[in-house]
Design brief:
By secondary structure, the chain is of the alpha/beta class. The chain has one domain: Rossmann fold (3-Layer(aba) Sandwich), CATH 3.40.50.300. Helix content is 35%, strand content 21%. The chain is built from five helices and seven strands, in the order E-E-H-E-E-H-E-H-E-H-E-H.
Amino acid sequence: MVTFIKSASKESEWINDDKIEICFIGRSNVGKSTLINALAKQKISRTSNTPGRTQLVNFFDFGKYRLIDLPGYGYAKVNKDKKEELNIMIEEYLVNRKNLYAVFQICDCNVLTDRDQSMARFLKSKFNNHYIILNKIDKQSKSFYDNNINKIAKYFNTSKDLFIPLSAKKSLQVNLLEKKIDEILKNR
Ligand SMILES: Nc1nc2c(ncn2[C@@H]2O[C@H](COP(=O)(O)OP(=O)(O)O)[C@@H](O)[C@H]2O)c(=O)[nH]1
Ligand SMILES: [Mg+2]
């Protein structure tokens, strides 16, 4: 049974135990909430057409692990103070969280930005278990991924092995992510 646990705005509100955590990070509107719902096979996270809705660190219980949904980074329409506050929340979690074991960066494969690129560089330098989910593949032709994977790997300066192409909305290839999470938990 997968459940929403709580939202936190600061470190003192995090959960204090030894349970392993996996986090989702990405720009707002790339489909983080939709993917959480696809993984959970139920609607436990609010999705939105309006970017910038998740402005807290959200904790979900997935049984063997906790899944953490971080605020979206690089959203232009929130004011400067709010942006700073969100970036601090993200960094605080990524840098300080002892429970954190793997980071899944979610990108919209149709719109890769400089912020995605610099975030990938940061995450790669800091985490052995860093993967890049290329979401919204349903918007492209079937051959898109195969035709562009080398270009995307070059863009991120990473190995192709880090990529997980899927569609959260249409539940396409979400099993690739499930498999990767199982593998990570087993190899720990
Ligand atoms: N076409 C398509 N749209 C998606 C996909 N995943 C999410 N979306 C849409 O993108 C928008 C933002 O999704 P949401 O999950 O709220 O993004 P978040 O801000 O990253 O949590 C919503 O309109 C979703 O329906 C996908 O795989 N394909
Ligand atoms: Mg969301």
